[in-house]
Amino acid sequence: MLTLDLHPSGRHFLQIPGPSPVPDRLLRAISLPTIDHRGPEFGALGRKVVAGMQQVFQTRHPVAIYPASGTGAWEAALVNTLSPGDAVLMVETGHFATLWRKMATRLGIEAEFLALPGTDAQTGLPNAWRHGVPVALVEERLRKDREHRIQSVCVVHNETSTGVTSDIAAVRRAIDAARHPALLMVDTISGLASADYRHDEWGVDVTISGSQKGLMLPPGISFNALSPRALERSRSARLPRSYWGWDEIVEMSQTGYWPYTPNTNLLYGLAEAQEMILGQGLPVVFARHRRWGAGVRAAVRAWGLPTQCADDERHSPVLTGVVTPAGVDADALRALIHQRFDLSLGAGLGKLKGRMFRIGHLGDCNDLTLMAALAGVEMGLKLGGVPLAGSGVQAAMEHFAATPQG
Ligand SMILES: *Cc1c(COP(=O)(O)O)cnc(C)c1O
Q: Does this model's pTM top 0.90?
């Protein structure tokens, strides 16, 4: 149990790439009294959040909202569109892509896992975990699938385990170039409302997202944005589904209600988050995160450490993965930073365990909170005996001072 004297003063620095720090305005919205989820007031809220999510996903088509974590919405995407034994093509971009594939396998789907081969000479880490989706390999694989056994191509937009973002429009072009009928399913659980994302324009059939990352809310809501083709596919798909079924949830959401009890208070928060995000305008929100990402990368460069993302074009605006030198245990470093400075950093996951840490730059964040976080990291790196080429804090200060917010 937390006793008062163990509780540090000031705010904890939640610098993991989700859950992200929740703005006070959203916490206040969530604290309102819970209302009748079948009453008239609720219907207005339900319709408002669904319409707002269509704007955030940049889609004119239905969005299903689940009282569940992002993982639930992954399952919803799979069980609504596939039948037992169906084949899907997934792409190994990191830990979350790996978990999605594990889920597909557990559901009785034949999941082929495509990966960029080899390891990187500089870091010894797998290339697949340092680059985005290898679009040419996807096209080549689909061209070989002459009988069209592959039902879906499933990719992660913003790989939260690495800090690499993939070009989703290019994946769609690859599917079309191969003249393949596979659906395109995209996880942007950590990208939505921070990194540019366009469900309709990019030709995505199912987009999966969640509340606790770019939307700045606590965990507990997740989403499926749909296409007409995905809805059509769901009518013949035979995997068992009940709670996740699109049919009931999409039909009822048109009136602002759910087939079961939705998480009312989080939906208050969602309505408020939409006002913040759409009020500023998506382009402003995206530019803010890109600018933060550039500032954090300036710090990492000045320290002389590699970023996990090895492709300049594909750096995530949401988080930055920092590779620690050989022999430095990144988990021990994170523990030291947490203990000394009350700052939480993201762990290296899966194949990256102990090799890197992740700095989130999303949620309730600004130049000065980011500067404080970078100061905590720099002090920790020095205390951990990591040799640094220079001051990342100095470099980030210069970056932020020289590039005013748009
Ligand atoms: C966080 C995350 C998930 C998992 O979502 P949960 O809400 O933890 O179930 C899946 N994919 C990506 C890319 C994520 O960032």
A: yes
